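Entry 14. Structure prediction run on the chain below.
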Amino acid sequence: MFIRRLFMGAFDRVLSGIPGLDDLLDYIRMGDNVVWQVTDLEEFRYFMEPFVEQAIGDRRNLIYMRFADHEPLLSPREGLKIFEFNPDKGFEAFTVDIYNRITIEGKDAFYVFDSLSSLQSVWYTDLMMGNFFRVTCPYLFKLDTVAYFPLLRGRHSFDAVARIRDTTQLLLDVHTGDKLYVHPLKVWNRYSAKMFLPHSCSMDLEDFKAVDGGVALSRYYQILEEEEAQKQDQNFDSHDRFFSMAKLEYQQGRFREETENQILESTMTKDKRLQEMLKKYFKPKDYFKLRDRMIGSGAIGGKACGMLLARKIVNTLLPEYRAHREAHDSYYIGSDVFYTYIVSNNCWETRIAQRTEEGYFEKAGQLQKALLSGEFPSNIREKFRSVLEYFGQSPIIVRSSSFLEDGFGNAFAGKYESVFCVNQGTLEERLKVFEDAVRRVYASIMDISALEYRKQRGLEHQDEQMAVLVQRVSGSHWGDYFFPAAAGVGYSYSAYKWSKDMDQSAGMLRLVAGLGTRAVDRTENDYPRLVNLDRPAVSMQTNVADKHRFSQKNVDVLDTKKNHLLTKSTDSLMEILPLWYKRAVMERDYEAEDALNRMGRWRQVWFVTCQKLLENREFTGLMQKLLKTLEQVYGNPVDIEYTVNIDEEGDFVVNLLQCRPLFTGSRGGKVEIPSLSEGKTFFHLKDSSVGNSLKKQIHVVIQIEPKLYYEYPYGKKHQVAEAVGRINRYYKGSGKNLLLMTPGRVGTSSPELGVPVTFADISAVSGICEVSDSRAGYMPELSYGSHMFQDMVEAEIFYSALWEDRRKLSYDPELFAEEENLFPQICPDMEELFPMFRVTELEDLYYWNDVMSGETLCQIAES
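Output returned:
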């Protein structure tokens, strides 16, 4: 960026208000950022005040950027603009506010900034202070401004000062003895024989002279020697110095409340509710252990904080958990590393552009691509190597843990990436895979569904830094494969009631064999075991055939030979699985075996149900107590992720991987269903809806014709999801309630089973009705506990299923055939889809759902 100046000759000279300084520096030039490294702010005032008076006298556009808690450097006066900023908003929000003000003031402006050192106090780290300067200074240079910055000497790490020195045009060291001393450490694109010697001047800034005599130099270095004793250890970041001092005090028997508050604010969470819980269950040694396992500074993010807090709660309050807990040895990549990565890879201007209203979605792809191709600083790479050396060749998972993730009301379920690293090969090979995994997590912050989720909740302008949680994968080796015996998600309260007699407050598990990925994602033609914890061993199916049909068909595993995450059919794993494991998580289908025997092809037929595990009351009782304990402490329902490992004797250990507050929606009571009106009923259902009792007006109905979707070429079915997304965006913000009628499973990854929309494609929808159609083989199936399920709960999207059985009392898909179809207007370039889609706007259509009776009605209300 600075190179272009070299080809323009000497750029415009600026008077500093101090003639001797102008001679020393060959003048300040337009475009210069001038950093004054001072002992205190009084030293800075000596040089700032003449600069301000000169700028006002020259009728410059002079701005004071006020953001620190120290006394104001300038008072209001004619010819001076003062703007205030709040660094407590966080690095990104604060830096963007500064950037926007600089943009408004435009070219040729003159600036005085508050002390850069004050940012270290607010953000608890030298690193982020340096990052602020690295992104602000080049922009000021680009606009041909002149800016003065004070920096307190000896307060910051050598690395942070180096970042500032490498970026600024002028770095001047100031000392005070019997005289004032100015020592130019950097003067960009200017040179004279004695420019870089210390220079002295009188206290009234007269008689600038080079300090080049032996006696004078001796006196100068004596001043430096006296100041040296006051400096902090600059080999370490202020964040590390703080923790070292806190640990030393703790070893001496002291741990102050303000120390704990700073640890919580800087490292754990800014949520006051969570802070109080952490204070209750964390001991000082827990904080120090956490810091020892951090890479870089900053916060560990919501997911990591929730995991650590939950483990401490149950370990403290549930003695039986201690006998069955699996230890964890996670590492944490601090959130400051994320911004350092953005800054060091020159992505900041793209990030700024993406934060604007017009660039929010438009620039996301460009930034995501840049995040996927950046390089990590060498010191961070060395720490990555240390982590991999610690884990050896144990599989690990690299998980997102952002500022906003897993907080009260904002789960961000499935919005950001988690990446398995099978972790085989040489250290350099494993490092490359690990770095790519971290890049993918960083880049996922620009995923369209994540952006839509943040915007929907009014979080698009909040500081969203990405920390990373690195966990050892829990499991056992089974031949060339690695996976836990079982895994899943758990809910202390079931938001949706799928049977009349279930107790929603008893809690629910969604359980799979193998890696838990199949428990949190919508799986194609696969069914995790749903467990209501008031009757954990009771299946939703009543016969063996249905149990087998609606069971888990595939297992996600880590292949240590191929170094990949794979999905394997349960049948293909039979030979490597011991009999005791099969008996714990599978059942025999004797009816299928008899049928095969009659055909002369007998073999054992196993299918996954986790039945024996669920018949173990010690396990299910522990899981229910664990969920209820967390719910009680949180004062809110929670959901968790966990793994279960078992041995041949039937002993088990549980690894609590994640915990977050669960949004359950409003819990309505009884709703009166009106009587049916002939010719006005769209659908009438029994025991086919999940969610709460409600009455809601429907303004727009989106219908997708099942048979035409089935006949549409497989390779083009993604266009149907794209069309749904375009309709969603068309009505977004209109205040209209949309009902989507879609064939099969919404959000499936397999287009042959339903429309493969993402949450971003349906974020403006109020209700979804999955339509069964035997002609095409489509069957509804809401994946309780999946990320799509949680999205629908948080967005309070109601759900119904149109089955082709007794549960469908009536359905008239042609009810709106005479109304205008708006799809051609909304998607005029998708002519192939005109016959498949119908979009109808209506005035008097309502949806009623009564949980008490299990009845659902959608019809045009009587006027």
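The radius of gyration is 32 Å.
Filed with the rest of this week's runs.
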